[in-house]
Amino acid sequence: MRSTRGDQFVQHGRVVGQHDKVGEIVEVLGRDGNPPYRVRFQDGHEGLCSPGPDTEIRHRTTTEESR
């Protein structure tokens, strides 16, 4: 799984009723876009994350990059 700064990191809820945690990748610490990533979540919390089976990376689109 490869990512770049600005991509969205989505950690899906593991049980019914648990909301997804959504954050922005603010730093890529692995080589060539590989994990781990420093992620800033919507509540302001930052942490080092490596994607698991319950994680989705949403890449920025070209139009978002040009903003």
What would your notes on this structure say?
The chain is mostly beta strands and 67 residues long. It has one helix at residues 62-65, and strands at 8-11, 21-28, 37-41, 46-49, 55-58. It has a five-stranded antiparallel beta sheet with strand order 4-3-2-1-5, with no helix packed on it. A hairpin with an 8-residue loop joins strand 2 (21-28) and strand 3. The radius of gyration is 12 Å and the shape is globular. It starts with 7 loop residues before the first strand and ends with a helix.
Mean pLDDT: 89
Using only C-alpha atoms, the radius of gyration works out to 12 Å
Low-confidence stretches: none
Q: Report the structural category.
A: mainly beta
The general outline is globular
H/E element sequence: EEEEEH
Amount of beta strand: 35-45%
Number of helices: 1
Distance between the termini: 25 Å
The strand line-up of the biggest sheet is 4-3-2-1-5
Q: Into which percent range does the helicity of residues fall?
A: under 10%
How is the main sheet built? Answer: 5 strands, antiparallel
Number of strands: 5
